[in-house]
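Appendix C: a fully annotated inverse folding record. The material below is reproduced so that readers can follow the format used throughout the book. The structure is listed first as tokens, followed by the designed sequence.
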């Protein structure tokens, strides 16, 4: 009795390493899977093109990341119904026979049949079928074995989306020095499926598993290093970039082409009356007919809003351009602040004045006169006429 076995072996590690083995006898299948050279050690999902990443109990990995921006892997992934390999994986045919095997033959797809002499690989991407059999010294020929694989040499596609409350004013892009940039990594693999995505920020050498969007506080977008790997070990460190404002409007497709002006200057606020104050010493005096308005300007990102409060009020309220008047006699105060479009807030501007609503009072009285009064003393020479 003779047997022929099909082995898929790593292109890097050859000695004693069997990745997949299936016996030719249809009623006696045996599968043996051994993982090799695991860079990220992430539990794999069971089906191809699955984009879920299982990182249970894992938060960071070290620096064991391959060199180069992209690379073709050397792993085998068995999905529920399909097996994926790369062009680096070697296929080895090993035959056994109770007497002696003479020759082994194989054919890839509809190519010409050829005699097997050494392990081979399939470099072209896509679905392939390997048909194989052996003949012993007595001419006994086994029934052909058939094994299908999908060759996947393409790394995942990766997009880095950056979002921040950018402000575009007269074709200039403004940001605050206190911005929180939100980073979202979108990775997909249409063949064997996504295995893991790792990232680091700036010069950090320790990469983290990407599980959800993350934030970085900086004045300009930070450098993000990404490592994405599919289930057969194809990897990439390259990615496309999309930069959005907080409304979701795309403003750039590269951090290099985005020229950001950091706006750290708050707006300037003025509070004015519609008439000149009457000055009584250092005291500014107004009447109840005075109307007050608040204005603010910002020369960079632009003005977003103005807030104000009156007298002893604790809370600021939004100023919408209305005229402010006072009808009560006494001291009054207007305090205002303004916020620009990147969040810079001005210091408070205060105007204090006295409102005079008390009308003047007038008294009438007689002053002194030269005419004699009725009670004046009469001298002895005055003749008094009879009534």
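Designed amino acids, in order:
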């Amino acid at each position: 009795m003779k047997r022929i076995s099909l082995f898929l072996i790593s292109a890097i590690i050859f000695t004693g390493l069997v990745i997949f083995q299936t016996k030719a006898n249809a009623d006696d299948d045996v599968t043996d899977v051994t993982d090799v050279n695991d860079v990220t050690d992430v539990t794999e999902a069971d089906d191809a093109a699955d984009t879920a990443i299982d990182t249970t109990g894992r938060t960071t990995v070290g620096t064991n990341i391959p060199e180069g921006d992209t690379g073709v892997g050397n792993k085998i992934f068995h999905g529920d119904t399909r097996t994926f390999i790369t062009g680096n994986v070697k296929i080895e045919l090993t035959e056994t026979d109770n007497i002696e095997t003479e020759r082994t033959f194989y054919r890839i797809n509809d190519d010409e049949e050829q005699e097997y002499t050494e392990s081979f690989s399939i470099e072209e991407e896509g679905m392939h079928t390997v048909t194989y059999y052996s003949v012993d010294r007595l001419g006994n020929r086994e029934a052909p074995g058939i094994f299908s694989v999908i060759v996947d040499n393409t790394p995942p596609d990766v997009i880095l989306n950056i979002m921040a409350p950018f402000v575009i004013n007269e074709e200039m892009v403004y940001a605050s020095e206190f911005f929180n940039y939100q980073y979202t990594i979108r990775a997909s693999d249409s063949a064997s499926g996504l295995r893991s995505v790792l990232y680091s920020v700036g010069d950090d050498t320790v990469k983290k598993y990407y599980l959800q969007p993350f934030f970085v506080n900086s004045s300009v977008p930070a450098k993000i290093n990404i490592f994405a790997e599919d289930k057969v070990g194809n990897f990439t460190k390259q990615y496309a970039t999309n930069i959005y404002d907080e409304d979701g409007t795309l403003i750039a497709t590269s951090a290099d082409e985005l020229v950001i002006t950091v706006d750290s200057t708050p707006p300037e606020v003025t509070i004015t009356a519609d008439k000149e104050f009457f000055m009584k010493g250092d005291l500014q005096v107004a009447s109840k007919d005075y109307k007050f308005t608040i204005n603010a300007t910002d020369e960079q990102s632009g003005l977003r809003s103005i807030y104000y409060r009156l007298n002893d009020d604790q809370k600021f309220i939004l100023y919408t351009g209305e005229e402010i008047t006072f009808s009560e006699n006494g001291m009054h105060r207007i305090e205002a602040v303004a916020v620009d479009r990147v969040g810079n807030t001005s210091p408070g501007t205060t105007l204090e004045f006295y409102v005079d609503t008390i009308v003047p009072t007038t008294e009438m009285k007689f002053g002194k006169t030269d005419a004699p009064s009725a009670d004046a003393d009469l001298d002895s020479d005055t003749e008094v006429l009879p009534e």
